[in-house]
Design a protein that fits this description.
Layout (H helix, E strand, L loop, with lengths): L17 E3 L2 E3 L8 E5 L4 E6 L4 H18 L4 H17 L1 H12 L3 H22 L6 E3 L5 E8 L2 E5 L5 H14 L3 E5 L8 H11 L6 E3 L4 H9 L3 E7 L2 H13 L3 E5 L5 E4 L5 H13 L11 E5 L3 H13 L19 H16 L3 E4 L20 E4 L6 H4 L6 E7 L2 H9 L8 E3 L3 H10 L6 E2 L18 E2 L7 H4 L1 E8 L9
Parallel strand pairs: 7-8, 7-10, 8-9, 10-11, 12-13, 12-17, 13-16, 15-16, 17-18
Antiparallel strand pairs: 1-2, 3-4, 5-6, 6-20, 11-19, 14-15
Bound molecules: nicotinamide-adenine-dinucleotide and N,N,N-trimethyl-4-oxobutan-1-aminium (2ZO).
Length: about 500
Amino acid sequence: VSRQLSSTGTVVVTDPLNFWGGKRVKPREEKNAEPVFEPATGRVLCQMIPCGAEEVDEAIKSAHTAYLKWSKMAGMERARVMLEAARIIRERREKIAKLEVINNGKSITEALVDIDIAWQCIEYYAGLAGTLSGQHIQLPGGTFAYTRREPLGVCVGIGAWNYPFQIASWKSAPALACGNAMVFKPSPMTPVTAVILAEIYKEAGVPDGLFCVVQGGAETGTLLCHHPMVAKVSFTGSVPTGKKVMEMSSKGVKQVTLELGGKSPLIIFKDCELENAVKGALMANFLTQGQVCCNGTRVYVQREIMPQFLEEVVKRTKAIPVGDPLLDGTRMGALISKPQLEKVLGFVSQAKKEGGRVLCGGEPFVPSDPKLKGGYFMSPCVLDNCRDDMTCVKEEIFGPVMSVMPFDTEEEVIRRANNTTFGLASGVFTRDISRAHRVAENLEAGTCFINNYNISPVEVPFGGYKMSGFGRENGQVTIEYYSQLKTVVVEMGDVESLF
Ligand SMILES: NC(=O)c1ccc[n+]([C@@H]2O[C@H](COP(=O)([O-])OP(=O)(O)OC[C@H]3O[C@@H](n4cnc5c(N)ncnc54)[C@H](O)[C@@H]3O)[C@@H](O)[C@H]2O)c1
Ligand SMILES: C[N+](C)(C)CCCC=O
């Protein structure tokens, strides 16, 4: 995308979006093509043409060939290639971020952060690649054993549409660092940027086929999960699809990582630093138009500070600049699709019927720029008067809607916060250090943010409890989810046979 072409409403993507064998691959047949829309304009950006069984097989075989070479390289050799890939991404961050915005609808300010997190992730795992090692275990009589940390083989990554490039990086970086190959399937709604990552890995020097991209939806995903040459599936998406992925993978006893949805609680105590708590609540609800798995959408505020909290949170929410996501001043772009916009607006109507009060937003938003008239925009919404039994408080909305509820005591709010089948994230704002750690210990979630929300350095593990999934992404621990341990036992004496 050249600079002059990369403004909202101008880009059309026609290059093939599949990648294996070290190059972009044209779809075998164009039937079942689906239009992909630019969320900010509603215009068709490209066609997503799903891969069938033969194409999936070709991609997986290409990945396997690359795996045979890559897995034999030393960790330090792999690290060098990965560092080069990270460098190229850093160099092209603006171009990649722009394409991400055009395909996804989020603001350029956020997309640049996403791309930075992506290269940081690759850099981080490059750093770990040279540290992978086993253990030496001394046994009686000079006999000993050692363990080897080995790759799994060809791993599959299946991504959601909210962080397309970042998800591809969060999955491929630890996979490649451990010596695996990966075949990645982006969401059919955001097919455009994963192939750029594939090109960059190739340019950095990975063997042809090491990181492949196949386009498609549920059918292509199913083919990937069932393929006998696949050793592991790492999935990011909704709970219902995650269950299917786990079921399909179980047939081949494949390892699985599931990064699923959430309905996370954010607890604000009266002794908090209120301005930070308000800023935290906005960060917990409005990034990427609220389409974030770990968002803290159930905001529990201690009754005594509710009026001040609401006044400030509403004031700041009304001031969020919504509009052209490629403009530097914009802080909220367009939702991913028309059906998603309608679904989110439906949650707001339902909340009103169930007794919720809309303090601001919750309506379709039409920017003044004529080219954005067909975009999927809405005004960010704060709902007051919410109860735990309301639909907006129980279900994942995946849109810019914050539900606020009062609470009185710590014991009560922890019980209410944990009363959900999800467990992805949580947050607490308080100046009481003991309370902060006590609450963090008692919340049933994979992450607890104390006095902040939604920061995600790549050094820190990320993943869910309960139905929000299992396995982790980021952090050192993820090495364990992309490798296996072999034990080698070495006899130094004679065999003492029982027979
Ligand atoms: N925990 C996380 O890290 C995280 C991150 C982003 C999104 N999410 C969750 O993802 C959801 C939104 O994303 P979505 O709408 O893309 O989710 P989704 O479950 O509809 O789709 C996710 C991916 O799965 C693929 N897929 C669909 N059916 C499949 C099947 N039968 N077999 C294999 N693959 C299949 C899709 O094509 C897509 O690539 C939300 O629930 C959100 O919370 C979680
Ligand atoms: C980078 N965030 C904001 C932590 C989001 C992670 C991916 C979840 O949807």
